[in-house]
Amino acid sequence: MSVGAGPTQAEGQSFFDAIGGHETFEAIVRRFYEGVKDDDILAPMYPEHDMDGAVWRLTAFLEQYWGGPTTYSEQRGHPRLRMRHQPFHVNPEARDRWLLHMRAAVSEANLAPLHSATLLDYLERAAHSMVNTFEETPRG
Ligand code: HEM
């Protein structure tokens, strides 16, 4: 599976529109970063002074993936997410923390059950594909 290219929409409403567009995606991502901020494994990986930038990047990526505006690629180029995660220590522990905060964020968005399941299924597969090391989290 490519995590960068979203499902093609044959006709009708995109998933982006169906769940409430930009407002919904941004709310999920902001809630996700609330969890990240207090997480001892994840917080040190993220740019402390550019959390708004991080919110923008993840929101824009997810919006594009689900059929919303293509602003992410216009500004950041091809997602190449595995490559962009190489600098970070993404082991199964980090993946599980990432998913923990993402599940909480999606749950608080109160989406229809099928939408919620669709989104979480994708995020889980994407998170598994992002693991790039099985070495323990460096702690110092
Ligand atoms: C599995 C655990 C994961 C960890 C520990 C992790 C960690 C990170 C970190 C530390 C950053 C840099 C923050 C920034 O400055 O933007 C980042 C960026 C990003 N992550 Fe993840 N990530 C994970 C999974 C995912 C998944 C599953 C997705 C997609 C569904 C994703 C999408 C992104 C995007 C779009 C960016 C910004 C890329 C850019 O344009 O530079 N990440 N991630």
**Biggest sheet, open or closed, and with what strands and sense?**
none
Compute the average pLDDT.
Answer: 94
Assess the beta-strand content as a share of residues.
under 5%
Listed once per kind, the bound small molecules are: protoporphyrin IX containing FE
Please count the beta strands (DSSP E, at least 2 residues each): 0
Protein name: Globin
Cofactor: heme
Keywords: Heme, Iron, Metal-binding, Transport
InterPro entries: GlbO/GLB3-like (IPR044203), Globin-like_sf (IPR009050), Globin/Proto (IPR012292), Globin_bac-like_CS (IPR019795), Hemoglobin_trunc (IPR001486)
Which labels suit this protein?
140 residues, Globin-like_sf, 7 helices, 58% helix, transport, Globin_bac-like_CS, metal-binding, mainly alpha
Describe the fold and architecture.
There is one protein chain. The chain is mostly helical. The protein contains 7 helices and no strands. It is globular. Helix 2 (21-37) packs across helix 3 (51-65), helix 2 (21-37) crosses helix 6 and helix 6 runs antiparallel to helix 7. The chain starts with 14 loop residues before the first helix and ends in a 10-residue tail after the last helix. 20% of the residues are buried. It has helices spanning 15-18, 21-37, 51-65, 71-76, 81-84, 92-108, 113-130. Protoporphyrin IX containing FE binds at residues 3, 42, 45-47, 54, 57-58, 61, 76, 81, 84-85, 88, 90, 94-95, 98, 123, 126-127, 130.
